[in-house]
Amino acid sequence: MSTIKIGVLTASDRASAGVYDDLSGPAIVETLKRYLKSEWQPVYRLISDDRPTIERELIQLIDGEGCCLVVTTGGTGPAPRDVTPEATEAVCDKLLPGFGELMRSVSLRYVPTAILSRQTAGTRGRGLIINLPGKPKSIRECLEAVFPAVPYCIDLIGGPYLEVDPAVIQAFRPRS
Ligand SMILES: Nc1ncnc2c1ncn2[C@@H]1O[C@H](COP(=O)(O)OP(=O)(O)OP(=O)(O)O)[C@@H](O)[C@H]1O
Ligand SMILES: Nc1nc2c(c(=O)[nH]1)N[C@H]1C(S)=C(S)[C@@H](COP(=O)(O)O)O[C@H]1N2
């Protein structure tokens, strides 16, 4: 069986220029390592907040690398250079607005500025794309909320069976 691949894409002008280290991409990898019992391999990309580049990388991660899941971080806010949701929507066949709704709602427990994130999710073929905000601490806050629905979503789109560690996070599969 082929290895399960998960894309981790950081969109940040400053992190990609080396002004600061990207802490959010590695935080996604670490969080997923804790959640998943299935063998998997991260495919990491660090790019600037440039819409054509984000779209190209999302397409490459799913169509080229065969990632069943791509988690992005950064570029979800209202600033002029924040375009990750637009790039996500442009490459997806179907949008899943419930992901953004839930993450914003849960994030409000942590910061009143949670409503500034336009983060969304959607599917492209057999891949699921989920946007997270740029702040390193938001990674865990957001993934914890939506991850229980992720394995079943990937089942439904014909991706690999993701097994989670039930001591860390519960996956909900209504039909199993
Ligand atoms: N990938 C990241 N790694 C580490 N820290 C980050 C990252 N993204 C954001 N931050 C931190 O959160 C703060 C606010 O995030 P902001 O949304 O302005 O970042 P950004 O959009 O990635 O930055 P840029 O404007 O350079 O693209 C940043 O000043 C930085 O301290
Ligand atoms: N869980 C969580 N969500 C959060 C935050 C956070 O710290 N934790 N920061 C908010 C802030 S301050 C902004 S501006 C938006 C967008 O961030 P981004 O442009 O880095 O994606 O996410 C929001 N969502």
Automatic annotation (TrEMBL):
Record key words, sorted: ATP-binding, Molybdenum cofactor biosynthesis, Nucleotide-binding, Nucleotidyltransferase, Transferase
GO biological process: Mo-molybdopterin cofactor biosynthetic process
Top class in the EC scheme: transferase
Residues covered by the MoaB/Mog domain: 7-153
One Pfam family linked to the record: MoCF_biosynth
SUPFAM superfamilies xref list: Molybdenum cofactor biosynthesis proteins
Gene3D superfamilies in alphabetical order: MoaB/Mog-like domain
Pathway this chain belongs to: Cofactor biosynthesis; molybdopterin biosynthesis
Catalytic reaction list: molybdopterin + ATP + H(+) = adenylyl-molybdopterin + diphosphate
Signal peptide: none
InterPro entries: MoaB/Mog-like_dom_sf, MoaB/Mog_dom, MoCF_biosynth_CS, MPT_Adenylyltrnsfr/MoaC-Rel
Primary role: Catalyzes the adenylation of molybdopterin as part of the biosynthesis of the molybdenum-cofactor.
NCBIfam families xrefs: molyb_syn, PRK09417.1
Name under which the protein is recorded: Molybdopterin adenylyltransferase
Protein source organism: Gloeobacter kilaueensis (strain ATCC BAA-2537 / CCAP 1431/1 / ULC 316 / JS1)
Gene: mogA
